[in-house]
Design goal:
single chain; alpha/beta; Rossmann fold; GMP Synthetase, Chain A, domain 3; 10-stranded mixed sheet; 4-stranded parallel sheet; 14 helices; about 30% helix; globular
Length: about 475
């Protein structure tokens, strides 16, 4: 019998009253969790979900946590549904369940999860037996990478992959318990934390924002968290505003982007916890870990023992220690290809190596320094520029809430210039800002500045620069001077 749901349900007999799920809005014991999952699974079965079906879920976090287990119970494959991945893989998706009336409203495969839908599960026999997967190599889960460019890339996890990854997560980035992942169930970090906790009889802590995270840190005695730079900034600002101490928090781990010196300083004001870098990807897991260094903000840690990282040139040949080039990675539990995407697989997975699309170097101490993403490098006037570097230089600039560099292409002339999208927390003098940018960045100063109410970002808080560029181009075509 192959189904990880049995491991989750085993805790009902051992510790039925122990908490399986906890958020600021809900607490659910293992006994209630198992009963609820069975009832939802029975409803899914009635709704046509069959073993091997691919099921998209777009629900409130607490409900999402129940439905992931219910889909697993049915021997089906779940993924966090977003407009981008549903549109890209519509033909391969069998069902979409959502509590959002607007999401995929015209999709015949969509089923709306209403209060009546949930209430109807109360009348269902809760002794339903799980549908087993054929083998531990059967597909059980899809996690779409947090890429900021192009078509979403799905990473397929078999039952065996899930178990391998959660054990590597425990050894590589779950250093103390209770542990909370601020990264949600639409990320590989969130889903690994979820499965690890529920398979090992611990509590999966569900964050719904900075305030909720701080409340859980206090109420659950959280000792370690994993977050992203954008979420950490929100968390630090909220902690400073509350003027509270969180002495039980020992370790803050950051993945998904570089920590600016300003963010490091803000975090140090708010928390006494150690600030730690993690570097990796959905495809390969975590491959480095190390303390954040204010003098080397792009040094993302030492390569972990179970990971192999190399820097290569344009011909995919290794370069000497200390030399820059493209990063490639091998881990024992990495994906071998993308789900239903041969084109992206051919460029991402080459000769058993994974190429994440980042550039960097490895120093003599086996520490990895990351410069930026190859596919995000901006080509402005023939010069290559790392937009993340521009963003980091503006971190903490007075009057700016957020900023993101992008390629501003004139829709009429085709001329490419460096653009900067900004979100302000009040009035700001654009001409003074331009002057300051020229002093701060010299020849790399943006030529185009546009205002946005919000910078579009992915789930890790990374700016979606192609989306910003499209907003800019569309605004020019419509004759607007600003977005």
């Amino acid at each position: 019998m192959v189904n990880a749901i049995r491991d989750m349900f085993s805790w009902v007999d051992r510790t039925p009253q122990a908490l399986a799920l906890k958020s600021t809005r809900l607490e659910m014991s293992y006994s209630v969790f198992a009963d609820t999952v069975r009832r939802v699974a029975a409803k899914l079965r009635q709704s046509g979900v069959r073993p091997g079906d691919v099921v998209g879920l777009r629900l409130e976090p607490e409900l999402q946590a129940v439905f992931i287990a219910a889909v697993l119970h049915e021997g089906a494959v779940s993924f966090a549904a977003k407009q981008s991945n549903v549109q890209a893989y519509r033909a391969q998706i069998n069902h979409v369940f959502t509590d959002n009336q607007l999401f995929e409203a015209g999709n015949p495969k969509r089923q709306l999860v209403t209060q009546d839908w949930l209430a109807s599960t109360a009348a269902i026999n809760a002794k339903l037996e799980p549908n087993d997967f054929e083998t531990d190599q059967s597909l059980a889960l899809l996690v779409f990478s947090s890429g900021t460019t192009g078509t979403p890339k799905g990473v397929a996890f078999t039952i065996a992959n899930v178990l391998e990854r959660i054990e590597s997560a425990h050894s590589n980035w779950m250093p103390a318990k209770p542990f909370l992942a601020e990264l949600g169930l639409d990320t590989v970090s969130g889903i690994q934390t979820y499965f690890y906790n529920l398979i090992h009889g611990e509590t999966y802590l569900i964050s719904t924002g900075a305030k909720a995270t701080l409340e859980l840190i206090s109420s659950a005695g959280v000792k370690a968290i994993k977050t992203s730079p954008a979420k950490l900034l929100d968390l630090s600002r909220e902690a400073l505003q509350q003027q509270s101490t969180f002495d039980n928090l020992e370790i803050i781990q950051v993945a998904g982007g570089l920590i600016s010196a300003h963010l490091g300083a803000e975090t140090a004001k708010a928390f006494s916890a150690r600030l730690t870098y993690l570097y990796g990807s959905t495809e390969v897991g975590t491959v480095t870990r190390g303390l954040f260094d204010t003098e080397a903000t792009n040094m993302v840690g030492t390569i972990l023992p179970d990971s192999k990282v190399e820097i290569v040139d344009a011909n995919r040949q290794p370069v000497p220690v200390g030399q820059n080039g493209a990063i490639r990675i091998k881990t024992p539990y990495q994906a071998k290809s993308y789900w239903n995407n041969a084109e992206k697989s051919a460029t991402g997975f080459i000769d058993s190596w994974f190429y994440p699309g980042d550039t960097g170097r490895i120093d003599a101490k086996r520490q990895l320094h990351v410069d930026g993403r190859i596919d995000e490098m901006l080509n402005v006037g023939g010069a290559k520029l790392n937009p993340a570097w521009v963003d980091s230089m503006l971190s903490g600039y007075r009057g700016l809430q957020d900023a993101a560099a992008f390629t501003a292409t004139d829709a009429v002339t085709g001329e490419a210039k460096l653009g900067l999208a900004i979100v302000t927390n009040g009035e700001i003098n654009i001409e003074i800002l331009k002057t300051n940018l020229r002093e701060l960045l010299g020849g790399s100063a943006p030529e185009v500045i546009v205002r946005l109410n919000e910078i579009p970002k992915n789930e890790l808080g990374k700016p979606l620069r192609l989306e910003i560029a499209k907003l800019y181009t569309d605004s020019i075509l419509k004759g607007k001077k600003e977005i």
